[in-house]
Amino acid sequence: MTKPPVIALLGGTFDPIHNGHLLSAQELKAVLAADEFRFIPCHRPPHRATPGVSSQQRLAMVELAIAGKPGLSVDGRELQRDQLSYTIDTLIELRREYGEHAVLCWVMGVDAFCHLDTWHRWQELLDYAHIIVMARPEATLPTQGPVAELLAAHQVETVAVLLQQPAGQLLLQTLTPYPISATAIRQAFREGKRPSQALPEPVLNYIEQHQLYRSE
Ligand SMILES: Nc1ncnc2c1ncn2[C@@H]1O[C@H](COP(=O)(O)OP(=O)(O)OP(=O)(O)O)[C@@H](O)[C@H]1O
Ligand SMILES: O=C(O)c1ccc[n+]([C@@H]2O[C@H](COP(=O)([O-])O)[C@@H](O)[C@H]2O)c1
C-alpha cells in the first residue's frame, strides 16, 4: 500500500499571521515529515470578538506570507461558511475529502489546548484528526479536569507512533519558542511602531498599504 499523506493543519485568526506562526509551522512540518502544512484562517472565531480586519484581508496576508515557501498552503474554506468557524466542521469536511487513510494533524498552541474542553463538540475532534500541541519547555498543562483526562487517554510520545494512525492521538511537540503574538503586533502598530522583525516583509507591506491596525 502507498504511504498515506501526512497533512498538518493550523487554524487561527491570523490577525495578522506572523513569524511565530511561520517558523513554528516550518519546524513542525520538518519534524512530522509532513507532505503539506496548511494554514486555515477562521472567518468568525468562536471564542473571541470578530476582528476589525476582514476575513478576506487576513486570508490575503496568509497568502502573501506563504508565497514561495514549499509545502506551505492556505485553505480559505472557513470563509465560505457564514457561521461560527467551528473546527469540528472543518475536520469533518477534510476527512471526507482526504479519505480514511490520510494522517490529519490539527495543530494548536499550548494556551489554546488548555481550553480545548470549551470547543464545540470537542470530544469528537480526535475522531477525525490527531491533535498536535506546540509546546514550550516551560509550558504548564492541566493536571486535572477534562483536558488532562483527554491527554492521559490519548497521548503518544513520538511522531513515529502518531504517524501509524490516521487520527485519534495527541502529541506534545516541543518546538523552538518564538515569543511573538498578534496582540503585541497590533499594539505596536497602534503606537505607531513598525514591528518588522515579527512579520514577513510582504505582510508588513500589506498592512502599511491598507493602513491596518492604526486604531481599534
Ligand atoms: N509565537 C507562536 N509560536 C507558536 N504558535 C503560536 C504563536 N503564536 C500563536 N500561535 C498559535 O497559532 C494558532 C493561531 O494563533 P492566532 O492566529 O490566534 O495568533 P496569536 O498570535 O495567538 O494571536 P492573538 O495574540 O491575537 O491571540 C494558535 O493555536 C496559537 O496558539
Ligand atoms: O471549534 C471551536 O469551538 C473552536 C474554539 C476556539 C478556537 N477554535 C479554532 O482554533 C483556532 C485558533 O483560534 P484563535 O482564536 O486562537 O486564533 C482557530 O482555527 C479557531 O477556529 C475553534
TrEMBL record:
UniProt family annotation: Belongs to the NadD family.
Cytidyltransferase-like domain boundaries: 9-187
Entry keywords, A to Z: ATP-binding, NAD, Nucleotide-binding, Nucleotidyltransferase, Pyridine nucleotide biosynthesis, Transferase
UniProt pathway annotation: Cofactor biosynthesis; NAD(+) biosynthesis; deamido-NAD(+) from nicotinate D-ribonucleotide: step 1/1
Role according to the record: Catalyzes the reversible adenylation of nicotinate mononucleotide (NaMN) to nicotinic acid adenine dinucleotide (NaAD).
Top EC class of this enzyme: transferase
Gene that this polypeptide is encoded by: nadD
Name this polypeptide is given: Probable nicotinate-nucleotide adenylyltransferase
